[in-house]
Design a protein that fits this description.
Elements lengths: L9 H29 L6 H21 L1 H22 L1 H26 L5 H28 L16 E3 L8 H8 L3 E4 L2 H8 L4 H11 L4 E3 L8 H14 L3 E4 L8 E2 L12
Helix pairs in contact: 1-2, 1-3, 3-4, 4-5
Length: about 270
């Protein structure tokens, strides 16, 4: 069975969970406080503190249990930013930053508009945050799409660029995998590699290397519901994931044009081995 905890950096996850608990508690407390300010006759004053504490505890628990979801969301956003940077370069990053600024301007105008019909600032703050997130997503998508579009008169056929690398399971039998993980950006591995290496690598060294690189955050595990029963089926799944995710495929046995061979990397120092 694949260990789910290998997909997360434990220290980062603990810090993120603590921050989410604090934010959730603050939101729950502020929401109830604002509600009681604008509707003071709903409940007696002596019960307000108890209800507010319960609200803080509930929202803090809800946010704390959502830490892994937020972790995956942050990792996905970071991967998208790296992908945009590799495809478009500095122009793409400038477009993303300007999209954030433009979204802030839109939210300011929107807040002024709803201020006349809604006086509870905690609710307005929540709506403003949601509008800001939606505007950022739309502006970033449209701006990067516009920058990526070919100019008039240019050839419309654009070569599909990869946004990262996928290490095949057999790469972890070679010590050069340490060098590859250090030298490359956005390196992935299919989660079936754990099962494949457990079945076909008797020494256990490959699984150990995979664990070390995943726990160090140098390799990210891609989850898939696909199953396999033999090595040919496993290789087919790896290549389909590589093509679907637009990842450069790295293998110890290159059998297709455009693949990279793990042997092209230099061996790491003996201390690493």
């Amino acid at each position: 069975m694949i260990n789910e905890q290998l997909c997360y950096d434990k220290k980062k996850l603990i810090i993120l969970r603590a921050a989410l608990i604090a934010v959730g508690g603050a939101i729950g407390g502020l929401a109830l406080w604002q509600y009681f300010v604008y509707y003071p006759d709903v409940v007696s004053r002596e019960y307000r503190i108890v209800i507010t504490v319960v609200s803080c505890a509930f929202t803090a628990l809800l946010f704390g249990l959502s830490a892994k979801a937020f972790y995956r969301l942050g990792a996905s956003i970071a991967g998208c930013v790296l992908s945009v940077n590799s495809k478009i370069g500095a122009r793409g990053m400038i477009a993303v930053i300007l999209s954030f600024i433009a979204s802030g301007a839109v939210v300011m105008v929107f807040d002024i508009a709803i201020r006349t019909v809604w006086n509870i600032w905690a609710v307005r703050l929540l709506i403003d945050v949601l509008v800001y997130i939606v505007c950022c997503a739309l502006f970033c998508y449209e701006s990067t799409k516009w920058l990526n579009a070919p100019a008039d008169g240019e050839d419309k056929t654009v070569e599909v660029k990869h946004g990262g690398y996928l290490l095949s399971a057999d790469c972890f039998r070679d010590v050069r995998v340490y060098t590859a993980a250090d030298a490359l950006i956005n390196v992935k591995v299919y989660d079936g590699a754990y099962k494949a290496l457990a079945l076909w690598d008797e020494s256990g060294l490959a699984v150990k290397r995979l664990d070390e690189l995943v726990l160090a955050g140098k390799v990210t595990v891609l989850r898939s519901n696909k199953t396999f029963s033999d090595k040919a089926g496993y290789d087919e799944i790896e290549r389909s994931i590589s093509a679907g995710k637009r990842l450069k495929f790295i293998s110890a046995d290159v059998s297709a044009d455009g693949d990279m061979n793990i042997a092209m990397f230099a061996p790491p120092p003996e201390s690493v081995q």
